[in-house]
Amino acid sequence: MFQALKKLLWFFKQQWKRYTLAIFLLLITNFAEVTPPWLVGQVIDKISDESLTKIVLIQIVIFFLFVIVITYIINYIWRYLMFSGSQILETLMRRKLMQKFLSMSPTFFERNRTGDLMAKSTNDLNQIRNTAGIGILTLVDSTTFMATIILTMIITVSWKLTLAALIPLPLLAILEIELGKRIHKRYMVSQKSFGDMNDSVLESIEGVRVTRAYVQEDKLNKDFKTMTTNVVEKFMNVEKMDAYFQPITIIVTAASQAIGIGFGAYLVNTGEMTIGGLISFTVYLNMLVWPMFSVGILINIMQRGNASLDRVYETLNEKETVEDVNSPDVPSHDILMKSVKFSYPSSETINLNNVNINLSKGETLGIVGATGSGKTTLIKQILKEYPTGEGEIMLGDTNINETSKESLRSLIGYVSQENILFSRTIKENIKFGKNNATDEEINDAIRLANFEDDIKRLPLGLETLVGEKGIAISGGQKQRISIARALIMDPKILILDDALSAVDAKTEKQIIQNIQEYRKGKTTIITTHRLSGVKHADVIVVMDHGEIIESGTHDVLLNHNGWYKSQFELQRLKGVYDN
Description:
This is ABC transporter ATP-binding protein/permease. This protein is of the alpha/beta class. The chain contains 22 helices and 10 strands.
């Protein structure tokens, strides 16, 4: 039951002062709260033996009020300390998760669905916060308050009556521990189903245009209804098991009270107890209902917290497939790939085979080939997104495996095929490449990306919101914003991964010319299906099934009578190639 606390031991050590003070104050309130019933018993006994005077009554009332005020103040302080601590834990765990998400390679996101990661970042973290807040409160309060009450009953009333009244408690403990184990299992299942639902919602929202185009709204609604019903059933299974705690606790406490009152009446008749003592004992028994009931709450919270911690730690403990190293900045930007062979972790085939490329600083490399030929895979090897396979990838005299991700990627301006934009303004998306960019730098990047005319036509210009993932603008505009975002970095190495596919040939030609003029002396890598985009390249490689089947300049490849020439002729006939 307390595995969750062991897993959070690092946090409690870090915040030991906060929790020590909170628990100490809680213990004080526990002793203060058992005082009023004792005072009631004393008053009744004094009334019975006619020894209660006005002065004594006033003294008791003043002391009673003092205890209530002090208890209220101390309760406020320890609750503030404990619950603010749980908020700190949730913040730390959320930061750790975010840091993990940002540092992991693509293989991590291939194994983990977005919906499940969202569930861990919301529901599971909330449950962990409850464990460090309400869980610790319930644990300390239920155990210490119960111990305080029982000790008070033994000392101030009767040890015989106390032991008799506590006979049913072991049964309660056994039943609640068994319920806790079942809650843990069902809660794990319910959280997984919640993650599945999150993932389904994300896919539906992202693919809403496709859904409408194929008139699948009704089908998706039915599927979602089935899924949400399933999620509700899973959570209801947890709540059904949780619902057993209260009636079991009520039955056991009722049995305890019946024993206490019955045996207490017998002790009063035999003269071993006073009536005031029995009344005080009855009040104490009623006060025991909360700690006994809270044991069930405690088990429930701890089991849910343990399940959530397992899920979150499962993510936090995942190992990065691409090991990072501490290394100085790369001194040279020459790129050498020698006999590179690579397969994706989940692939059963060879994705790159015997790739050899020698690209000097300041040169442009064009990578062409049919769809699925390995162009993007080659780029991902340069970006160090996956573990390198056989062979060598060198940046100057430094092996890429000896280069840190940060120093490598700080050299690179990368425009991917997806052209991911954030739900912000165009200006903010461009400045993502360089936070402290000036207006002049932004305008230069827009000009180089041939986006000036589009900016003038947009209603709010640079302040136009692009919508989630750029849904409010065209594909060509997304690509050019992404190019501007990369160019504003003024990177040593610029990689355009099929980043001009959504623009017309005239716009593509202008962007390529701008890049040629602006990036003299800097390295550029372009993958494309439209050969006009790499005509100017110093080196062009043709990929096929992960291998380089042709290599050379544009003119050299036209004399090879291979794939490049045939594709060039085909595109020229279709009017795709712009001479």
